[in-house]
Amino acid sequence: MKRLLIFGYGFSGRAFAGRMAREGWTTAATFRRPEVQAQLAADGVAGVDLADRDALTEALADASALLITPPPGPQGCPALNTLVGPLAEAGAFPDWVGYLSTTGVYGDRRGRWVTERSALSAQSVEGARRVRAERDWLEVGRGMGLTVTVFRLPGIYGPGRSALDRVREGRARRIAAPGQVFSRIHVDDLAAGLAASIARPRAGAAYNLCDDEPAPNSEVIAFAAGLLGVEPPPEIPLAEAGLSPAAMRFYAESKRVSNALAKAELGWRPAYPTYREGLRAILAGGG
User: Fold this and answer.
1) What is the pLDDT of residue 45?
2) What are phi and psi of 190, to 5 degrees?
C-alpha cells in the first residue's frame, strides 16, 4: 500500500490527497487545530496530531511520499523544524519529498520569461524566506539521502477559490497595472504535476508548475464576469486602488513563468492551459 503524508492540509493538499486516493494511495495529514482534524475525518484522511511526536514518527516511518505545503515564517519552514528529528528517529526514507514554493523567488522580471535556470532574486521578505526554505530542504535531502523536489507555484485557483467566486460575492476588483502579468494554476493541474513527479522522481529537481498563458488580473476578472453574465467591475488604476502593502508588493512584480521543464521531464500537461478553460470547467461543475 502506497502511503502519502501531507504536512499542511489546505487547498492544495486536499486536492492532491483526492487525486492520489483515486490512484489507490492512502493519505494521512498533520493537524494542530480541531477544525482541521474534523475536515480530515470528513475526507477519509487519517489525522496525525503534531503534538504527538510518537504518532508523527510512526506516520513518517510508513510514508512512501511526503508533501510539505505551509509557507515559511520568521523562524524558517515550520515543517523542516518539526520533521527532521522525527525523520531521523524513524529511520524514514520516503521515496519522494515534495516542497511547495512560489514563483515569487524569481522577483520582478518586468514581464520577461523565467525558467528554473533563472537566478533567484526575491524582492520581498516572504520571497526571501521561500528561497531559504527551498535551499534548506534541498540540503536536508542531500544530507539524509532523500529525494527532495521543489515546486514553484503561482496563484492557485479552483472550485470555491476563483475569480468566479470573487465576482459573485462582489469582491472582484479590476486593477489596471499596465504591463503587469502573472501566471496561475488550477489546483487539479497542480495535483497532477505532483503525481507526475512521484512517478518520475529526481532528487534536487525544481519545477515551475503553472499554466501556459500569463495574463493580467483585469482580463481574468472580465472573463469571469462574462461567464456569469454580469458587467465586470470598472478598472481602477493601481495608484488609486488603496491596496495593502502585501498586495502592492504583489503588483510590483511582473513575469512570465515557463512550464517547459515540467512538460519535458515529467510528461505533465495542464488540463487547463489557460484561465479560460479553468474557469469554464469550474462553472460547469457548479463551482
Assistant:
1) 97
2) -60, -50
Radius of gyration (Cα) for the chain, nearest Å? 19
Length of the chain: 287
Task: Name the H helices within 151-244.
Answer: 163-168, 187-199, 217-228
DSSP structural state of residue 119:
P
Domain contains 105? yes
Question: Mean pLDDT for the chain?
Answer: 95
Question: Domain total for the chain?
Answer: 1
Q: Per the domain annotation, does 237 fall within a domain? A: no
In a domain, 31, yes or no: yes
Residue 111 φ/ψ, nearest 5 degrees: 85, 0
Q: Which residues contact 137 (CB under 8 A, 6 or more apart)?
A: 68, 77, 80, 97, 99, 148, 150
| Non-local CB neighbours of 143 within 8 Å, separated by 6+ positions | none
Does 7 reside within a domain? yes
Residue 113: its pLDDT value, please? 97
Condensed to tens digits (0 to 9), the pLDDT of residues 18-50 reads 999 999 999 999 999 999 999 999 999 999 999
- Cell numbers found for residue 270: 495542464
- Residue identified by cell 512521484 is 198
**Residue 149's CATH number:** 3.40.50.720
Residue 40 CA to residue 28 CA, distance in Å, equals: 8
d(CA 198, CA 95): 8
The overall pTM is greater than 0.90:
yes
118/268 Cα distance (integer angstroms) = 21
| Domain of 263, in residue numbers | 3-156+184-212+256-272
pLDDT grade for 239, boundaries at 50, 70 and 90: confident
